[in-house]
Write a structure and sequence with these properties.
The structure holds 2 protein chains of 2 kinds.
Chain A: H1 3-24, H2 28-48, H3 52-77, H4 91-112, E1 119-121, H5 130-142, H6 145-166
Helix pairs in contact in A: 1-2, 2-3
Chain B: E1 3-5, H1 6-26, H2 30-54, H3 59-89
Helix pairs in contact in B: 1-2, 2-3
The chains are: A mainly alpha, B mainly alpha.
Chain lengths: ~180, ~100
């Protein structure tokens, strides 16, 4: 039992427990906080995998910006806990059973096609240097320049769309 | 040998993805459904970074970077839509949003 494996197992327990906590907690605010913990755990996995830049993006963008937006909307709408409706009562056990089937299928396929040669060793200190970040930026701005620009246009469109959708309508209200 | 097989990461990602899919199916609160979608995106990102680490390539990490940016755009528009639905209907329980039902 090596130390990397122990860290991995503990972190995966935390990740799975927080994911289940997010799905099953009654209060939407608790769900959001569980999801923040899950995202931070995945960021620690990225650090273990030698991707410090992605880990920091994950924490600032996901756990920071996106989850603050979620919490803001939950509290703005007062949607902490909805009254459970009685429509489709058979859906919940069916969904849980289907999710279990999905997990069993995925585990079977992954194990039956396992590639035991591929293993991840913990990264050495070289991934935390400026050189590593510079190499990633060179690849991003050379090989992936067009997708990068398209993403920026997509973000602009999303920003305009969000503003237009939440704008107060002054005309044609009729009241 | 201090290492973790990459299959363990794929297994963890499959479990997280299935939990997210289950959350989409069983919850009636659209905000929690959105969070479950984020969880599924996150599970996919984990596999990208794991294989990027195995093959010592930056392409997987850059793809995850794009996924995070697109998820941010998706959440901004989606939450704006939910706020508008709440303003129009005073309710966001998705079982009662059946105006388009034939």
């Amino acid at each position: 039992m090596n130390s990397d494996l122990i860290v991995f197992l503990v972190l995966s327990l935390v990740a799975i427990a927080t994911a289940l906590g997010m799905v099953f907690s009654r209060n939407a605010v608790y769900s959001a906080l569980y999801l923040v913990l899950n995202l931070v755990t995945v960021a620690v996995f990225y650090l273990l995998l030698g991707a410090p830049f992605i880990a920091m993006s994950q924490i600032t963008v996901y756990a920071g910006a996106i989850m603050v937006l979620f919490l803001f909307v939950i509290m703005l709408l007062g949607a902490e806990s909805l009254v459970p409706s009685k429509a489709l009562p058979w859906q919940k056990p069916l969904a849980i059973a289907l999710a279990l089937v999905l997990v069993v299928e995925a585990v079977y396929l992954i194990i039956s096609r396992a590639q035991p040669g591929l293993a991840i060793t913990a990264p050495d200190a070289s991934v935390n240097t400026m050189e590593n970040l510079r190499a990633m930026a060179m690849e991003l701005f050379n090989a992936y320049l067009l997708p990068f620009e398209i993403t920026s246009i997509l973000l602009l469109v999303a920003m305009v769309g969000a503003i237009v959708l939440t704008k107060q309508e002054k005309v044609g209200k009729g009241s | 040998m201090n290492s973790v097989p990459v299959d363990y990461y794929v297994l963890l990602s499959a479990v997280l993805f299935a939990i997210g899919a289950m959350g989409v199916l069983i919850r009636r609160n659209p905000l929690i459904i959105f969070m479950s979608i984020e969880l599924m995106l996150n599970a996919a990102n984990l596999v990208f970074v794991a294989y990027a680490s195995v093959f010592k390539s930056f392409s997987g990490q850059i793809f995850v970077f794009f996924v995070i940016a697109v998820a941010a755009a998706e959440v901004a528009v989606g939450l704006a839509l939910i706020v508008q639905i709440f303003k129009a209907k005073k309710n966001i329980n998705i079982d009662e949003l059946n105006s388009l039902k034939g």
